[in-house]
Amino acid sequence: MKFIIYGVRKDEEGYAQNWSKENNVSVKLVTDLLNKKTVKLAKGYDAIIAYQQLPYDKEIFTSMKEYGIKDLSIRNVGVDNIPTDVAKANGVRITNVPSYSPNAIAELAITGLMQLLRRTPEFNEKMAKGDLTWEPDIAHELHTMTVGVVGTGRIGRAGINIYRGFGAKVLGYDIFRNPDLDAQGIYVDSADELFAKSDIITLHAPATKENYHMINKDSIAKMKDGVYIINTARGDLVNSKDLLAGYKSGKVAGAVLDVYENEVGIFNNDFTGKQIPDPTLRELMAQRDILVTPHVAFYTRPAVRNMVDVALNSAKDMVEKGESQNEVKF
Ligand code: COI
Questions:
Q1: How many Å lie between the centroid of ligand 1 and the Cα of residue 305?
Q2: What SS3 state is found at 149?
Q3: Up-side HSE of residue 184: CA atoms within 13 Å toward CB?
Q4: Is the confidence at residue 223, as pLDDT, over 90?
Q5: Is-catalytic flag, 213?
Q6: Is 101 in the pocket of ligand 1 (CB under 6 A)?
Q7: Marked catalytic residue, from 119, 157, 204, 295
Q8: Is 234 one of the annotated active-site residues of the chain?
């Protein structure tokens, strides 16, 4: 059995090499991303392992069919950049890593939130100028607040556990209710109800056609004054310009954004000494209480290790047994 793994970063190399030794499966590591040109490197391999945020070219799947490769194993969760109809039409099966580390994502969300609630960006700014005073603002305590969790899958649930550890009241909204959480009575009946009742709104839903820009000027108007908004899920959930307007008006007290709707081609690039080529992102980043990070919630040692190991295991299962618990059904 021979696999090829595309877009390998330095921090992933050791995990892939160890897996290859432990499983006695040859794994070719390449740094190129998978696209219509680089797919030719996969000729002769039994499965492709990939991760990228750029859209997967349709031609990848026609070439895979031509080379007799049936399996694409992605080492992340989201499949929103894969033309799944084309994959299916060319007999390509897809596996993902649905749960590499829900805590990695939930912890980053809460890290940003605590910075905002305890005003550390404000103190950093003031202290850099030599101003060591306390005022004008005064901090919040999370246990006095209500956190509205949109999306109660694995990541949302990891967040709920952490928020509860802080003593906060938690509300949930999801089109698919988790039976345990339902029995605890955390669900509200609509996103609007959650918006109206929450001091903090944290998004943990996949991007779909239905929830595109669910945070927009109308939904922000329904929220409490001084609301905090957290998005570590998908950029498309938030209308960034409306969020900025809400922040500038004072309606939104702050935001934590690890994702941005136009991040592809911008995040994970070094613009030192150059202008970031997106004015809205630049403006978001310039606001003291909008904390932007470049889609790094997943970027922890345990998560990256799981991404590599689970993706390789799934590819092996697909090739050997024709099935994997991580196969994405369309
Ligand atoms: C995903 O797993 O879909 C993510 O969003 C994380 C990715 C940047 C590796």
A1: 13
A2: strand
A3: 13
A4: yes
A5: no
A6: no
A7: 295
A8: yes
